[in-house]
Protein backbone atom coordinates (compact mmCIF):
# COMPACT_ATOMS: atom_id res chain seq x y z
CA UNK A 1 0.00 0.00 0.00
CA UNK A 2 1.36 3.39 -0.89
CA UNK A 3 1.71 6.32 1.50
CA UNK A 4 -1.09 8.11 -0.36
CA UNK A 5 -3.47 5.17 0.08
CA UNK A 6 -2.49 4.81 3.72
CA UNK A 7 -3.09 8.45 4.59
CA UNK A 8 -6.52 8.47 2.90
CA UNK A 9 -7.65 5.24 4.55
CA UNK A 10 -10.69 5.33 6.77
CA UNK A 11 -10.63 3.97 10.33
CA UNK A 12 -12.43 0.88 9.00
CA UNK A 13 -9.73 0.35 6.38
CA UNK A 14 -7.02 0.65 9.02
CA UNK A 15 -8.89 -1.81 11.25
CA UNK A 16 -9.03 -4.43 8.47
CA UNK A 17 -5.33 -3.89 7.72
CA UNK A 18 -4.50 -4.31 11.43
CA UNK A 19 -6.49 -7.56 11.63
CA UNK A 20 -4.65 -8.98 8.59
CA UNK A 21 -1.30 -7.79 9.92
CA UNK A 22 -1.95 -9.40 13.31
CA UNK A 23 -2.95 -12.66 11.65
CA UNK A 24 0.20 -12.55 9.51
CA UNK A 25 2.22 -12.15 12.72
CA UNK A 26 0.40 -15.15 14.20
CA UNK A 27 1.11 -17.27 11.12
CA UNK A 28 4.74 -16.17 11.18
CA UNK A 29 5.01 -17.69 14.68
CA UNK A 30 3.31 -20.96 13.82
CA UNK A 31 5.77 -23.62 12.82
CA UNK A 32 4.84 -25.98 10.02
CA UNK A 33 3.16 -29.11 11.32
CA UNK A 34 0.69 -30.04 13.99
CA UNK A 35 0.12 -27.54 16.78
CA UNK A 36 -2.34 -28.14 19.55
CA UNK A 37 -5.04 -25.61 20.36
CA UNK A 38 -3.61 -25.01 23.85
CA UNK A 39 -0.59 -23.47 22.11
CA UNK A 40 -2.47 -21.60 19.38
CA UNK A 41 -5.30 -19.99 21.34
CA UNK A 42 -3.01 -17.89 23.57
CA UNK A 43 -1.23 -16.70 20.42
CA UNK A 44 -4.53 -15.93 18.69
CA UNK A 45 -5.72 -13.96 21.72
CA UNK A 46 -2.48 -12.00 21.89
CA UNK A 47 -2.24 -11.15 18.20
CA UNK A 48 -5.88 -10.59 17.32
CA UNK A 49 -7.69 -9.53 20.46
CA UNK A 50 -4.92 -7.72 22.35
CA UNK A 51 -2.79 -6.30 19.52
CA UNK A 52 -5.39 -5.68 16.77
CA UNK A 53 -8.62 -5.17 18.71
CA UNK A 54 -7.18 -3.42 21.76
CA UNK A 55 -8.33 -5.67 24.59
CA UNK A 56 -6.14 -5.84 27.68
CA UNK A 57 -4.99 -9.02 29.44
CA UNK A 58 -7.41 -8.29 32.30
CA UNK A 59 -10.37 -8.37 29.85
CA UNK A 60 -10.32 -12.12 29.31
CA UNK A 61 -9.98 -15.56 30.87
CA UNK A 62 -9.18 -18.89 29.33
CA UNK A 63 -10.24 -22.30 30.58
CA UNK A 64 -7.66 -24.63 32.06
CA UNK A 65 -7.09 -26.33 28.71
CA UNK A 66 -6.76 -22.91 27.01
CA UNK A 67 -9.14 -23.65 24.14
CA UNK A 68 -12.12 -21.58 25.31
CA UNK A 69 -11.90 -17.86 25.99
CA UNK A 70 -14.29 -15.36 27.58
CA UNK A 71 -13.96 -11.60 27.16
CA UNK A 72 -15.58 -9.40 29.81
CA UNK A 73 -17.03 -5.92 30.00
CA UNK A 74 -16.15 -3.45 32.79
CA UNK A 75 -18.63 -5.15 35.15
CA UNK A 76 -16.98 -8.55 34.45
CA UNK A 77 -19.95 -9.86 32.45
CA UNK A 78 -18.92 -12.20 29.62
CA UNK A 79 -19.63 -10.36 26.34
CA UNK A 80 -17.63 -12.47 23.86
CA UNK A 81 -17.19 -16.24 23.89
CA UNK A 82 -14.55 -17.89 21.75
CA UNK A 83 -14.66 -21.65 21.22
CA UNK A 84 -11.30 -22.86 19.96
CA UNK A 85 -10.74 -26.06 18.03
CA UNK A 86 -7.62 -27.81 16.81
CA UNK A 87 -6.42 -26.76 13.37
CA UNK A 88 -7.42 -30.12 11.90
CA UNK A 89 -11.00 -29.77 13.20
CA UNK A 90 -13.55 -27.75 11.23
CA UNK A 91 -14.32 -24.47 13.02
CA UNK A 92 -18.02 -25.18 12.50
CA UNK A 93 -17.74 -27.96 15.08
CA UNK A 94 -17.31 -25.24 17.72
CA UNK A 95 -20.50 -23.34 16.92
CA UNK A 96 -22.84 -25.43 19.07
CA UNK A 97 -20.56 -25.15 22.09
CA UNK A 98 -20.28 -21.36 21.66
CA UNK A 99 -24.09 -21.10 21.59
CA UNK A 100 -24.32 -23.34 24.66
CA UNK A 101 -21.90 -21.12 26.59
CA UNK A 102 -23.83 -18.02 25.51
CA UNK A 103 -27.07 -19.55 26.78
CA UNK A 104 -25.83 -19.28 30.37
CA UNK A 105 -26.00 -15.45 30.32
CA UNK A 106 -27.80 -12.70 28.46
CA UNK A 107 -24.66 -10.54 28.41
CA UNK A 108 -22.86 -12.43 25.64
CA UNK A 109 -23.06 -10.32 22.46
CA UNK A 110 -20.63 -12.17 20.18
CA UNK A 111 -20.05 -15.89 19.71
CA UNK A 112 -16.92 -17.04 17.90
CA UNK A 113 -15.85 -20.49 16.76
CA UNK A 114 -12.34 -20.85 15.36
CA UNK A 115 -9.64 -23.35 14.51
CA UNK A 116 -7.22 -20.42 13.95
CA UNK A 117 -7.33 -20.90 10.16
CA UNK A 118 -11.07 -20.16 9.95
CA UNK A 119 -13.17 -17.92 12.17
CA UNK A 120 -16.96 -17.75 12.38
CA UNK A 121 -18.33 -14.69 14.18
CA UNK A 122 -21.96 -14.45 15.26
CA UNK A 123 -23.76 -11.46 16.77
CA UNK A 124 -26.55 -12.21 19.22
CA UNK A 125 -29.88 -10.83 17.99
CA UNK A 126 -33.64 -11.27 18.05
CA UNK A 127 -34.87 -14.55 16.65
CA UNK A 128 -36.50 -12.72 13.72
CA UNK A 129 -33.06 -11.53 12.51
CA UNK A 130 -31.18 -14.73 13.33
CA UNK A 131 -29.43 -17.13 10.99
CA UNK A 132 -29.43 -19.72 13.78
CA UNK A 133 -31.05 -20.40 17.13
CA UNK A 134 -29.45 -22.98 19.41
CA UNK A 135 -29.84 -23.57 23.13
CA UNK A 136 -32.27 -20.66 23.27
CA UNK A 137 -29.73 -18.21 21.79
CA UNK A 138 -30.43 -16.51 18.45
CA UNK A 139 -27.56 -15.08 16.44
CA UNK A 140 -26.65 -13.81 12.99
CA UNK A 141 -23.46 -14.85 11.21
CA UNK A 142 -21.58 -11.60 10.60
CA UNK A 143 -18.20 -12.94 9.46
CA UNK A 144 -16.91 -16.19 7.98
CA UNK A 145 -13.19 -15.62 7.57
CA UNK A 146 -10.79 -18.08 5.92
CA UNK A 147 -7.53 -16.70 7.32
CA UNK A 148 -5.51 -19.64 6.04
CA UNK A 149 -6.46 -18.80 2.48
CA UNK A 150 -5.69 -15.15 3.02
CA UNK A 151 -2.39 -15.38 4.83
CA UNK A 152 -1.43 -18.94 3.76
CA UNK A 153 1.89 -19.22 5.52
CA UNK A 154 2.17 -22.93 4.69
CA UNK A 155 2.61 -22.30 0.94
CA UNK A 156 4.89 -19.34 1.58
CA UNK A 157 2.68 -16.91 -0.33
CA UNK A 158 -0.43 -15.32 1.06
CA UNK A 159 -2.99 -13.75 -1.21
CA UNK A 160 -3.12 -10.52 0.78
CA UNK A 161 -0.69 -8.85 -1.63
CA UNK A 162 -2.90 -9.82 -4.57
CA UNK A 163 -6.15 -8.49 -3.06
CA UNK A 164 -7.39 -4.92 -3.11
CA UNK A 165 -8.54 -3.33 0.14
CA UNK A 166 -12.18 -3.76 -0.91
CA UNK A 167 -11.60 -7.48 -1.58
CA UNK A 168 -9.95 -7.92 1.82
CA UNK A 169 -12.83 -6.13 3.56
CA UNK A 170 -15.42 -8.25 1.79
CA UNK A 171 -13.55 -11.38 2.89
CA UNK A 172 -13.88 -10.28 6.54
CA UNK A 173 -17.40 -8.87 6.69
CA UNK A 174 -20.38 -10.86 5.45
UniProtKB/TrEMBL annotation:
Matching InterPro entries: HSDR_N
Source organism, top-level taxon: Archaea
Gene3D superfamilies from the UniProt entry: 3.90.1570.30
Limits of the Type I restriction enzyme R protein N-terminal domain: 63-127
Name of the protein in its database record: Type I restriction enzyme HsdR N-terminal domain-containing protein
Organism: Halospeciosus flavus
Amino acid sequence: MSDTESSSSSPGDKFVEQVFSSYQDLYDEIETGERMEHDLMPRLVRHLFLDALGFSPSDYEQEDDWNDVRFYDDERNPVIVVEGKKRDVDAEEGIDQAFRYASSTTYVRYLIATNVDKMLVYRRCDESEADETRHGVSAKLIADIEFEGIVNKVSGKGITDDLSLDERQSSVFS
